[in-house]
Design brief:
774 residues, alpha/beta
Length: 774
């Protein structure tokens, strides 16, 4: 082991990596577009890494290894795969002449190629971040194919800052992987643990040689109930850290366990020779004194500051937690519960938020200060007394602030009865909808949004600045809606959408039109790759003062005889993709949002809209990681959707949409939504979901996606036809719809039109084949 350096008394588990003004997104997308070369991309990335490191030092995280080296060009799990050489055989040879996975090969895994779909994408624990799923089989040739983590450490060190290099830990990496296409039935990626450990060991040696005193290995999969025997998981953890801690020349090892309580494997890690263990004691209960005593001389890194949400820390409560931990553990350091990659950079940059609301908030930079304050408290309680008292006063003022409680809203939710959550039987609704809509077999539709061109974004920005008046802006949006409707008519779609040009974001648009929300200007967080969102802030009781979407839907319907979908974002997704108040139950907040949407559906029906889609792509994102907590969540989340939609008439067809989750886990809940039609991501996973639908006996309309919109590749007609043919084998054709995986907002018009044309042609082909069989 290298010379021992104490673990820093204050540090973050991770920091936002996209740049304060999304510089990484802009640089990466410029590289993809051929506007800059790899050298320019490298320069941009290094500037972001160094500026982030310097900022954390300015905020007081100035000890050696206090700054986390958690930068990534795209995704941390993809980074681990790149270092380990976990490249699926279906991609052919991606390594360069030096046997390394260069930036082009890296992005090929993330975005696919003309011939190959990219790696599957799915949710990262209970967050709105999505990671790329490695494909592992007996044939996977593990070897060191990237040293970027070493190079990034060396660059920061050369500029005067010793960071703490980061990698997804070996057990989590394999638990998050899926079996490759070539793997035999029953193959488990975890069976390859012995084969990846030498690569991790080699990396540890290179980091030690570069001067790293600490390395962080993330093992969040250990806070999730896994479908493997506990003793098998214990053995894997024990073996992994037996091998890695035995490396002769290595940095000291911090194992971090964010996103929940570490239960079953706490003993295995405590008994290992790792040097520090991070526990999420914000979301999970603090371990017993006996468990902490089992840590021996290891540093306990206490995640007492919430890295996942933006509310100001209750410093008094955190200090009490730290007192209890310090009484039982040999040494305690302070950190965040998770990486702060899930929150924006700095609340001080939000000039349009009220001072009152800003005082309630803590973005990544403020969390760094909170961590530093609590570390100071451990060293000298008196030094932090003023900061603790100020935080307590702000939290008290928030509870009493106007709008946090609205008695009329609470009276309405309190008066709800079982009848408010139920529609007529599906058979009754199905007959009424068939008569009203008269759709062909395998009806075609899209999920909602169409490409948001630079012209649309410019018009929105000019309207906000006052350079376009309301009438001018409205006309530009109507022109785009007509373009989208005409295109769908020309392509031959059956149920149309208006394209949502007026919407900046599927959640923010509603937040801007509902009471109880505020929105940020610079509050960007990474969703996946270069895709960033600005989560809204849900701080008070929610109510709707006027219709939100009706005028746009009514105009779009006037342009066509075909059914036009009204497009709403569901209550669970509005919560999941916002920073939600933490002072009441999520179920109560969801019902408030649901009632606002229920009123919107009533107004859409009155305007002549016969199809309404209530999107819930985030339904699984909030699913608790421990099975014992999941049923309670599924109950209130499903109920909130039903509350939003149960007021619809029988002839109104209610659609919903879900994407990028393991749907088999929540298939009962999806069925419980009682939507008339459910569209689900399926293209990137190559129709895996249809097996779950078949085994469940799903009985209503369903559209497993046949076009992966999260990649720029255009699926050919034959590819879409093959996917549809697979779906028809497992789901009755009378139930099937044909649609993309998700909305088209991030795509360009050329690729979108070609892809949608192929989709319609494939649908006609399969319809004809089905007709020939009758």
């Amino acid at each position: 082991m290298t010379t021992q350096t104490p673990f820093p008394s204050a540090s973050l588990l991770g920091y936002p990596r996209i740049g304060r003004r999304r510089e990484l997104k802009k640089a990466v997308e410029a590289y993809w577009a051929g506007k800059i070369d790899a050298a320019a991309l490298d320069v941009a990335a290094k500037e972001i890494q160094l500026s982030s490191a310097k900022r954390l030092v300015e905020l007081g995280l100035d000890e050696a290894a206090a700054v986390p080296g958690t930068f990534s060009y795209y995704d941390q799990v993809l980074d681990a795969a790149a270092h380990l050489g976990a490249i699926p055989a279906r991609f052919g040879r991606l390594l360069n002449a030096e046997g390394q996975l260069d930036i082009d090969g890296y992005f090929t895994l993330a975005r696919g190629s003309k011939e190959q779909q990219p790696l599957e994408m799915t949710k990262w624990f209970d967050t709105n971040y999505h990671y790329l799923v490695p494909e592992i089989g007996p044939e996977t040739d593990f070897r060191l194919t990237s040293e970027r983590v070493v190079e990034e450490f060396q660059y920061a060190l050369a500029n005067g800052i010793e960071t703490r290099p980061y990698l997804v830990g070996p057990v989590t990496f394999l638990l998050l992987s899926k079996a490759s296409d070539d793997a035999p039935a029953g193959f488990e990626p975890l069976s390859r643990l012995e084969d990846i450990l030498p690569v991790y060991a080699e990396l540890l040696g290179k980091l030690a040689a570069a001067g790293a005193s600490w390395v962080q290995l993330d093992e969040p999969a250990l806070v999730v109930d896994q479908d493997i025997p506990a003793e098998k998981l214990d053995a894997a953890v024990t073996r992994a850290y037996e091998v890695l801690t035995a490396v002769a020349d290595r940095p000291q090892i911090l194992v971090s366990t964010p996103y929940g309580a570490l239960d079953g494997q706490l003993g295995a890690l405590a008994a290992s020779n790792i040097d520090a263990l991070h526990l999420d004691v914000f979301k999970g209960a603090a371990p017993s004194e006996a468990a902490l005593a089992g840590l021996g001389s290891k540093t306990l890194v206490a995640g007492v500051v919430d890295g996942h949400n933006i509310w100001r820390n209750d410093l008094a409560a955190s200090a009490a937690t730290l007192d209890a931990l310090q009484a039982a553990a040999a040494r305690v350091a302070v950190s965040t519960s998770t990486s702060t990659q899930h929150v924006p950079h700095d609340v001080a940059e939000e000039g349009k938020l009220s001072d009152q609301l800003k005082s309630w908030l803590a973005f990544a930079d403020q969390k760094a200060v909170e961590v530093k304050t609590l570390a100071s408290y451990l060293a000298d309680p008196a030094s932090a007394r003023a900061a603790i008292d100020e935080a307590s006063a702000v939290i008290a003022s928030r509870a009493a602030a106007e709008g946090v409680r609205r008695e009329e809203v609470r009276a309405r939710t309190a008066a709800l009865s079982e009848a408010d959550f139920a529609r007529s039987e599906y058979s009754v609704r199905e007959a009424a909808q068939e008569a009203a809509l008269q759709l062909p077999p395998l009806p075609t539709t899209t999920i909602g949004s169409f490409p948001q061109t630079s012209e649309i974004r410019s018009a929105r920005a000019r309207n906000i600045k006052g350079e376009l008046n309301a009438a001018q802006y409205e006309q530009l949006m109507k022109d785009e809606i007509k373009r989208v409707v005409d295109l769908q008519e020309e392509l031959g779609y059956d149920v149309l959408v208006h394209g949502e040009p007026e919407r900046n974001d599927m959640v923010q648009y509603f937040a801007e039109n509902l009471e109880g929300f505020d929105v940020t200007v610079h509050g960007w967080v990474q969703s996946y790759g270069s895709r960033c969102t600005r989560p809204s802030i849900l701080w008070g009781d929610v109510t709707r003062s006027a219709p939100i979407t009706v005028a746009w839907a009514e105009y779009a319907q006037s342009l066509t005889e075909k059914p036009m979908k009204g497009m709403l974002t569901g209550p669970v997704t509005i919560l999941a993709w916002s920073f939600v108040r933490d002072d009441q139950s999520l179920g109560e907040t969801a019902n408030q949002v649901a009632l606002a949407l229920r009123d919107e559906i009533t107004d859409l029906e009155a305007a002549g809209i016969k199809v309404v889609q209530v999107d819930e792509p985030a339904l699984r994102e909030l699913l608790p990681l421990r099975k014992a907590d999941q049923q309670a969540y599924l109950k209130w989340s499903v109920d909130s959707f039903r509350l939003a939609t149960a007021g619809a008439q029988d002839a109104t067809q209610i659609h919903t949409h879900l994407c990028y989750s393991e749907f088999g886990v929540i298939i009962d809940a999806i069925d419980g939504l009682d939507a008339d039609v459910t569209s689900i991501e399926a293209a990137r996973s190559r129709m895996e979901v249809v097996h779950d639908l078949e085994s469940h006996g799903f009985g209503r309309g369903v559209g497993p996606g046949v076009y992966d919109i999260h990649s720029p590749r255009v699926p050919g007609e034959a590819e879409v036809t093959e996917l549809l043919a697979t779906a028809v084998k497992h789901v009755p054709s009378r139930q099937l719809w044909v649609n993309p995986d998700c909305g088209l907002k991030t795509r360009g018009y050329a690729e979108t039109e070609e892809s949608l044309r192929n989709l319609v042609t494939a649908a006609k082909t399969v319809r004809e084949e089905l007709g020939a069989r009758v």
